[in-house]
Amino acid sequence: MTTSTRGASKAPAVLVLEDGRIFRGRAYGAVGETFGEAVFSTGMTGYQETLTDPSYAHQIVVATAPQIGNTGWNDEDDESRRIWVSGYVVRDPARVPSNWRAKRSLDDELVAQDIVGISGIDTRALTRHLRERGSMRSGIFSGEAIAAESELVARVQAQPHMKGASLYEEVATKETYVVPAVGEKKFTVAAIDLGIKGMTPHRMAQRGIEVHVLPATASVDEVYAVEPDGVFFSNGPGDPATADGPVALMAAVLERRTPLFGICFGNQILGRALGFGTYKLKYGHRGINQPVQDRTTGKVEVTAHNHGFAVDAPLDKVSDTKFGRAEVSHVCLNDDVVEGLQLLDQPAFSVQYHPEAAAGPHDAAYLFDRFVSLMEGQRA
């Protein structure tokens, strides 16, 4: 939820957390008020991709990098049609952007899209607080929206929790669209949009895949009407426990044994379809520097993450499911969170992180080649 006015960028602003902690700074972007779950992202670069990632819907993102906005805002790097974060928190905004591709400043873009932010606060202290206490409901108030502290805390505490939030339909496309293959078309993929980023179908198109991006509410018949060689389930926001429709669709795809690939929210959907539970992480994984081990090869990758929920699956054994044997294929080396699943008796796998990673790193780009190999094997 956001209400804002433009201009007055030097207005006073406060960030209010649900536990009563308050940080005071100056307005950044639009002036007004906004509410969302306070989370932190550890990426040193890629703020434009972060802000336009639909997985950040209903979240107030804290940038842990001390200076933000140096490269301004361009017209090429958006991951979707708009900025999705509810609010943005930075320590030291760049006074003057400097990049040959920049069209305007980050501050100007936040104002243009009515995104309320705050600058000039101790983001180190805020990040440490969220690591200790966990991600929590929050609000940014600036200008005339500032009121008595007790009133602002009460308003934050009245907001809904992220746990139990169903958000994927809000950010997904309403109409099917097609991203053509680059060069010779080799395969057709039906991609279920749960909050897809623009770079994802582009990575597939680079490999000769024609991608049909379907709404989150697509039926089995609509998926197979495009005669797919494979089906893809995208990233997205909210609690996977609310995604009964996508879970049912995933199960239907698994029953047909069509090659399947899921990332982030799609990984959680696969987990649920296989009978595993999901749970909310204390503060989640967000940034472009998360170490993950591919247990199928032993290789360690530095990867891009944006998730606050995870799959509850055993790390130490192969599990029997109604779709055959399944195992955890990837694991986070920081905290042993499940970062990937694969079926051993049919062509289906998923990862919790973002192998498309437009802002980098690109260690995990091979996963799209793995998807291609599954489709080649099925065709053969």
What does this structure look like?
The chain has 380 residues and is an alpha/beta fold. It is built from 10 helices and 21 strands. The longest helix is centred in the last third of the chain and has 14 residues.
Q: How is this structure best summarized?
A:
This protein has 380 residues and is of the alpha/beta class. It has ten helices and 21 strands.
pLDDT below 50 for ≥5 consecutive residues: which ranges? Answer: none
Sheet with the most strands, sense and barrel status: 11 strands, mixed
- Give the percentage of residues in beta strands: 25-35%
Q: What share of residues is helical? A: 10-25%
Derived from helix and strand composition plus strand pairing, the structural class reads: alpha/beta
The helix count comes to 10
Q: Using the CA coordinates, give the radius of gyration.
A: 21 Å
General shape: globular
Q: What is the total tally of β strands?
A: 21
**End-to-end distance:** 50 Å
What value does the average pLDDT take? 95
Highlighted features:
10 helices, alpha/beta, 22% helix, 380 residues, 21 strands
Outline the fold blueprint:
Elements: E1 2-5, E2 12-17, E3 22-29, E4 31-41, H1 47-51, E5 59-63, E6 67-68, E7 87-89, E8 92-93, H2 106-112, E9 116-119, H3 123-133, E10 136-142, H4 149-157, H5 168-171, E11 177-179, E12 187-192, H6 199-205, E13 209-214, H7 220-224, E14 230-233, H8 244-255, E15 260-263, H9 265-273, E16 277-294, E17 300-312, E18 319-321, E19 324-332, E20 338-343, E21 348-351, H10 366-379
Parallel strand pairs: 4-5, 5-7, 6-8, 7-9, 12-13, 12-14, 14-15, 15-21
Antiparallel strand pairs: 1-4, 2-3, 2-10, 3-9, 4-10, 11-13, 16-17, 16-19, 18-19, 19-20, 20-21
